[in-house]
# Entry
Amino acid sequence: MGKILGNLNTALALGVVLLLATMFGLHHGEMDELYINWWFRFFHVISGVLWIGLLYYFNFVQIPTMPKVPAELKPGVSKYIAPEALFWFRWAAVATLLTGIVVAETGAERYLVAALSFQEGYRVIGLGMWLGIIMAANVWFVIWPNQQKALGLKPAEDDVKAKAARTAMLASRTNLVLSIPMLYCMVTQFYLPQ
# Structure
């Protein structure tokens, strides 16, 4: 078991095999047009967990801990951990956004336009969608460009790096704040009256 779980790719492959066994074992007769919506909904949740999980990692673990890390150990985070985490963070944002659009445009009810324009019955999910869109834009257009400077992935003077690090941190905190009502909207849309 250690060989399987000790290797990330093998562990992921095992998860996919178990997913396929679950899918075909439980839903093999129900894989119709509507099933595609549930499939994308599943991937929307998985990519969202990765995206928001990393957002929370940055805000609850990495940012508060970095001032306590000895100077000689900081390059381990800034050269190896942070760039890798930011890779998954920004692409999980894209995956969450795209799968959310597919969910809204497939299935029995297509509600993308209704939600984004806050039509009756879609205001809660619409607000959640707009918050998610703002957060994804923040990842790609504020956090990532500033992190590239702060981490030395793009050349910048020390004062520019320090300013970029602060801007990235504040943008990340903005996403933390927005994630709370966004998640509330996503979870309650179809369960609470509007």
Q: What stands out?
A: The chain has a mean pLDDT of 93. Residues 1-31 form one domain. The chain has two domains: 1-31, 32-188. The first helix runs from residue 2 to 6.
